[in-house]
Specification:
There is one protein chain. By secondary structure, this protein is an alpha+beta fold. It has a single domain (20-171), classed as Beta-Lactamase (2-Layer Sandwich). It contains six helices and five strands. It has a five-stranded antiparallel beta sheet. Helix 3 crosses helix 5. The relative contact order is 0.17.
Length: 172
């Protein structure tokens, strides 16, 4: 349970033409969210702006995935991912996201720009299984070692497939 929100089994499906857009500062605080983001999150614009982006994090998402995302974007690289998010009412929605770092005129990293769209059902199925395995490893490893354990598992899966994370999510 997160912030008093109990996850439910109710899924909200994105429409084909939906694009969820948000921007954050360097610490992950939301600085902008479009109307589709507001709709799917279930929060008002006032509740979202200034909040940590993880306000919509679903507990089914392994911490190792977010470490990968943060490492890539802090290294000035864009990242693609399948992500399960949670609405304020506990329902969930899957997205295919592209997170891109943003820069000022001096080429200093200022934050992140994220565009999410309806994911492929085949990709959700594959990543749901990968994420479940990662969560299981995280639970067994304990809080102090959870991220390292699930990151190792993900890297082992990627090595076995001969793909980077981006290559995997773009291929499925």
């Amino acid at each position: 349970m997160k912030r008093g929100i109990t996850p439910t089994a109710i899924e909200r499906a994105m429409r084909e033409d939906d694009f969820i857009v948000s921007t954050t500062d360097m610490s992950g605080r939301i600085t902008y969210g479009n109307r589709i983001f507001i709709e799917f999150s279930g929060y008002s614009e006032a509740e979202l702006i200034g909040s940590q982006h993880n306000i919509i994090r679903h507990p089914d998402m392994p911490r190792g995935v977010f470490k990968l995302l943060w490492d890539k974007i802090k290294s000035r690289e864009e990242c693609f991912a399948y992500v399960k998010n949670m609405n304020k009412d506990g329902s969930f929605y899957w997205v295919f996201t592209n997170v891109t770092p943003t820069f000022d005129l001096s080429n200093e990293l200022t934050g992140f720009f994220s565009v999410r769209r309806k994911p492929k059902a085949s990709g959700v199925k594959i990543m749901r299984d990968v994420y479940a395995a990662m969560l299981d490893v995280e639970r067994k490893a304990g809080a102090a070692n959870a991220v390292a354990a699930s990151t190792k598992l993900l890297n082992d899966i990627l090595k076995e497939k001969g793909l980077s994370y981006d290559e995997l999510v773009l291929a499925i």
